[in-house]
Amino acid sequence: QRTEPELILYNGNIWTVDPLFPRAQAVAISGGRFLAVGSNDDVLHLDAGRGRKIDLGGKTVLPGFNDAHSHPVESGVEHLRMVACDKNSIPEIQEALRQRAAKTPAGQWVLGFLYDDGNAAVPDHLVLARHRGGHTVFVNSIALKLAGVDEKTPDPPGGRFEHDSAGHLTGHVGDRATAVFEKLIAYKPTRDDYRAGAKLISQMMTSKGVTSACDADATPEHLQGYQDARDAGDLRLRIYS
After folding, report:
1. pTM as predicted
2. Which of the two ends of the chain, N or C, has the fewest CB atoms closer than 10 A to its terminal CB?
3. What's the rounded Cα separation, in Å, for the pair 194 and 74?
């Protein structure tokens, strides 16, 4: 007995990951599972007229990718609450931070993440932009002042406050030296933030073909966010925590 296909993809270049039959033209799918894989003739005759058929026009179909080390829900919350600084130029990063600053009450932090290199200037708000590697941050002058860090402040064990060749602080802060700024930021995501973050990041990852991921440092709050998104039908990828 065969289940009627809900979806048929045909006229494609489909990589099956089966060494005995590595390429196929068409697949039939129902309930999230493959019913048939083969040539167009093998699969198209299964169509009963009630499912969808998509002509791939020769496009390649690959299995979903796995991200073996990531922090999906944490990244999702950051996308909801912070400025994504993965721009193509420093002026674009500066403009994104300025736009967020214009919407941020005085005295509150403007937070960025996915930053790569250089300096971003927002003179009237506290700014902290985390480097995408996770071990360094960039802060502006008033953030340094609030934290009590000046050019004579010694580096803490396992951390550093970077200085330029003239001995002036650059705003680049590394590893354990970031703690003095982190404790000044009143940033505590809620349970709903984690649910919404899990929903958002699963949409972003699956849109690029990433269908499973390992959360390499999940907290109980992160796991709750994944579970809440799953229970709401909003978790689109498989998560290993």
Report:
1. 0.77
2. N
3. 8
- Cβ atoms of residues 170 and 162 within 8 Å: yes
CB under 8 A, 24+ apart: contacts of 75-78: 75/197, 75/201, 76/196, 76/197, 76/198, 76/199, 76/200, 76/201, 76/202, 76/204, 76/225, 77/189, 77/193, 77/194, 77/196, 77/197, 77/225, 78/113, 78/197
Sheet containing strand 65-70, edge to edge, reads 65-70, 210-215, 238-240
CB-based burial label for 146 (10 Å; 0-12, 13-18, 19+): middle
**Which phi and psi angles does 110 have, rounded to 5°?**
-100, 115
Spatial contact of 133 and 173, defined as CB atoms under 8 Å apart: no
From CA 130, how far away is CA 111, in angstroms rounded?
Answer: 8
Dist. CA 65–CA 83, nearest whole Å: 27
**Dihedral of CA 65/71/76/82: which sign?**
negative
* Grouped pLDDT means (10 residues each) for the chain, 241 residues: 85 96 97 94 92 97 96 95 89 92 92 73 80 87 95 96 95 95 88 98 97 97 98 97 93
